[in-house]
Each structure stands twice: as C-alpha cells, then as structure tokens.
Write a structure and sequence with these properties.
With 202 residues, this protein is mostly beta strands. Helix content is 9%, strand content 32%. It is globular.
C-alpha cells in the first residue's frame, strides 16, 4: 500500500515558522479516518500545533490521485475520482473534511461505521419500499428528503463506493461531465452530528 505524506501547516503558521530539518516536534496526537472511498488519512498533530496528513489509498484500486488542502486549519482530502460527484452536488463535500470527521467522532478509533443520508431519485418507488444501497444498512426512513439514513461498515466502504459510483472511469474535468450515482440515488450526504463531540480528545 502506497503512503503519501502531505504536510499541512497549522492555522497561522508559515514556512518561516517551520523548525530546521531534524527539529520537527514529536507527534502528540494521531487520528486515522477512513473516507467513503475507503482511502485512509492519518493526521498527526504535534505539541506545537503542526499537522501532517498521510494518505493511504484503498488497496486494489490502482494508482489514485488526491487533492489535499488546508483551509483555516482544517484538512480536506478529496480523491480525484470523487471530484465530479462533489462538483455536481451529488456528493457531500463534508465526507472529505477530515478535520470535521475527527471532530464529530467519526475517526476509526471511535466508530467502525460511516453514517450517511441517501436521497433517491424522484422517479423511483416509495422510500419505504426501497432497499438500502448494497453494502449498507438502513437505519431510518426519511420521507422529508425522499431518502434514508444508512450506515456502511468502513471495511465495506470501497465496495459501497464502487456500487454507487463509476469509479473505474477517468475523473471528469467539470460538473457537466459528472456521471450519475448508481442504485437509484440522487445524492449522498454525511449524516453529521449537530455539534462536535470528541474532536482530538481520547
């Protein structure tokens, strides 16, 4: 498995603030987050507030490319294969807000499942008659959004993603090239908590 280390400066830090080579602080906290694509992101935060994100692509999916950025101290890791779905509004960008996932207690140390809200296409049958997408379990029917709350095991995330996406196709360049989601789905959101509950605490 290939691991790509991607240093991310902490909020307020600049290149001039970086310590000399060999003087980097020892990581005091580490969190691993499994994305909906089953790619893993390991975030380490040193005692002085610096962060490093290491991306470990899901096995068996060939060479993958990622967009990794830090905005206001928050780390976002987006596989390029997911870009057209996010750009077209079919996939919630919050699923790739690694800092947000940690803050909500969705890192691997605190949960083995990823909670999602799926919206079915209007032309499909009633929500109560719908089966949960493959490799997921339905937790509740949400008639207000013509959808359902579902969870997928992180160990099944790659299979879930393959079943709802055209993951074998080249990444689209813009939203107009975006393929549709599979299994009769219109949109997928992170089923986020109202407020952070764990964050970087043990």
């Amino acid at each position: 498995m290939v691991a790509v280390a991607l240093p991310v400066a902490a909020q307020g830090a600049s290149a001039a603030d970086s310590p000399p080579a060999g003087a980097q602080g020892i990581a005091s906290l580490s969190r691993t987050v499994t994305l909906i694509t089953r790619d893993k992101v390991v975030v380490e935060r040193t005692a002085d507030g610096r962060q490093t994100a290491t991306v470990r692509p899901a096995a068996g999916h060939g060479t993958k490319r990622f967009s990794t950025r830090e905005v206001d101290g928050r780390i976002h890791v987006l596989p390029l294969s997911a870009v057209p779905y996010v750009s077209s509004g079919q996939l919630d960008a919050g699923l790739f807000d690694v800092t947000g996932l940690i803050e909500q207690g969705y890192d691997d140390a605190h949960t083995k499942r990823l909670p999602l809200i799926v919206q079915y296409r209007a032309a499909e049958q009633s929500v109560s008659a719908q089966q949960a997408p493959e490799h997921s379990s339905r937790e509740a029917v949400l008639d207000s959004v013509h959808g359902a709350a579902v969870t997928t095991k992180k160990t099944e995330a790659a299979r879930f993603w393959d079943s709802v996406s055209d993951s074998g196709a080249p990444a689209a360049q813009d939203a107009t090239d975006a393929p549709g989601l599979g299994q009769g789905l219109e949109k997928i959101w992170l089923d986020g908590r109202v407020r952070a509950v764990r964050g970087w605490r043990a």
